[in-house]
Structure formats: C-alpha cells, structure tokens
Amino acid sequence: MESESRARIKLLVSFQPGLHLRELQRQVGLSFSSTRYHVDKLTKEGELDRVEDKGYSRIYLPGTDSKDRVLQSLVRRKTDNKILSCFLAENSPTQQRLIEVTDLSKSTISEHLATLLELGVVRTRAHGEQRTFELIEPAKVNGLMRRHPVVLQKATNRFIDLWDF
Amino acid sequence: MLDITDGIVHVLLVAFSGIVLLISLFAYADRKTSRYFFLCLAFAFLAASELVGLIEVWYLSTQLIFIPSTGIHLSHFLEFLMLASFSLALLVRN
After folding, report:
1. How near does any CA of chain A get to the CA of B6, in Å?
2. What interface predicted TM-score (ipTM) does this complex get?
3. SS (H, E, C) A98-160
4. Least C-beta-crowded within 10 Å: which of A36, A57, A124, B71?
5. Of A21, A8, A77, A80, nearest to A49 (Cα)?
C-alpha cells in the first residue's frame, strides 16, 4: 500500500513537475499528513526534490534542470501564467501591450518583467524608442502551459475539496 | 406564447447546470470514487431536468411532459433522482 502510494506520487510529479504539496495531496487522494510523510521519505531517499518557493513547497524529480524548474514554477503562479500566456499570444509585446492584454497594473507588470528578465526567461529588444519583450524559449513555455487549463483545473480542485470529507 | 425572459432564464439554467456537470465529471475522472460518481449522477439529473424545463417552455408552450402511463411530471421525477443521488453521495464512504 505504501509503495503503491509512493509510486503514484512519483508518477504525478513526473507528469506535473513543480506540483506543490497541497495540490499533490488533492490528486493523490491521501490525507495531507500522509502525503507529506511519503514526500519526505521519497526526498530523503533521493527519489524526489522538494524546493521551497514563495510559500509553496514544490516537488520535482531529481535531476531536473534548474532553468526548467524556474519555468515549471512560473507557469503555476497565477500572475506569471497570465503574463506568459500573453507572450505566447502576442510574440513580442511592449510593456503597454502587456498591461492592456493582462489587465494588470503597470507596477505589477514591471515587477514581474524584471523577475522574468533576471531569471533569463524573457529578453528585451529596443525598436527606436520602444522596448519589446520576448520569450527566450517560447516552445518550452508553450509545452508547459498547455498542460494547465488553469480555470477548469481550479474549479475541479475546489469541487473536490468541497466534497472531500 | 413564449416569454423571452423566461426562455433566457431556462437557457441559462441549462448552461450552468451543464458547466457544473462538466466540472463534476472532471472531479470523478480525478478521484474515481463512488461519492464523486453519485455527484456526477446528481448533476446529470439536474442538467436533464433543466433541459426538460427548457423544452417545455421553448417547444411545448409550457405544456408539461409526463412519464407515459404514470402521471408523473418528468422534471419532478428527475429532481427526485437528483436528490436521491445527492443523498447517496453524502452517505457513501469516500
């Protein structure tokens, strides 16, 4: 039974690297403490990596490239996901275009763009007075984004939580 | 005579019950337990009941649809099945 749960946890993490503990618990169908226990054991045995990321404990398979981890973590954050979706739809948007499409404030966009530039996910180009931004690896980001239909997934998770007693 | 406002309300009822049914199906696909199965069933009966209501308003000029040779209003019977499914979802062990 224990090995079955751990195999399931590893399988879920391999399909959805960067899952956080609570999300993993929902999907695996165990209690939170049991899930944490199994994840701790697997981490100690070197079969999983657990990384603290802005209040979330994210889980990866060992050997995941640090740049891949950054991308996997970004697509799971609501605001970054919104901005990355805009990059995929618009190719090389300006900051103003990002503000218009995402409906986020200028300060939020500036802050997230600075982080994306620092992490090496996005690069900037100057066109006269205008500055545009583009993804360095759009195909990789696109592949990760397609796995997460955010709204439907969230609604399903909430539905599961509501009836999980 | 079709009341447009009432018709729109019925269309929205069918649409929303369809969305909830879809979400419950995803939840069942995720968990595959009897509780989520009964919840899917309940929301399927709700969607069916709303669809019957829409057909009554839209095509039959609010004439009721009855189950042949029983005298039971189909929409009420579907609502009964929905409540029975919800009760089972609450009672079964997850």
Report:
1. 28
2. 0.81
3. HHHHHCCCHHHHHHHHHHHHHHCCEEEEEECCEEEEEECCHHHHHHHHCCCCHHHHHHHHHHH
4. B71
5. A21
Smallest Cα distance from B60 to chain A, Å? 35
Which residues form the domain of A120? 72-144
Task: Look at the pTM and tell me if it is higher than 0.80.
Answer: no
- Distance from the first to the final alpha carbon of chain B: 48
Q: Is residue A158 part of a domain?
A: no
CA angle B36/B51/B66 to nearest 5° reads 105
Beta bridge partners of A57: A52
Domain contains A153: no
Chain segment A21-46, per-residue pLDDT in tens: 887 887 787 877 888 888 888 888 88
Q: B2 in helix, strand or coil?
A: coil
For residue A15, list chain B residues with Cβ-Cβ distance below 8 A.
none
Q: How many structural domains is chain A composed of? A: 2
Bridge partners of residue A85, in order along the sequence: none
**CATH number for the domain including A99?**
1.10.10.10
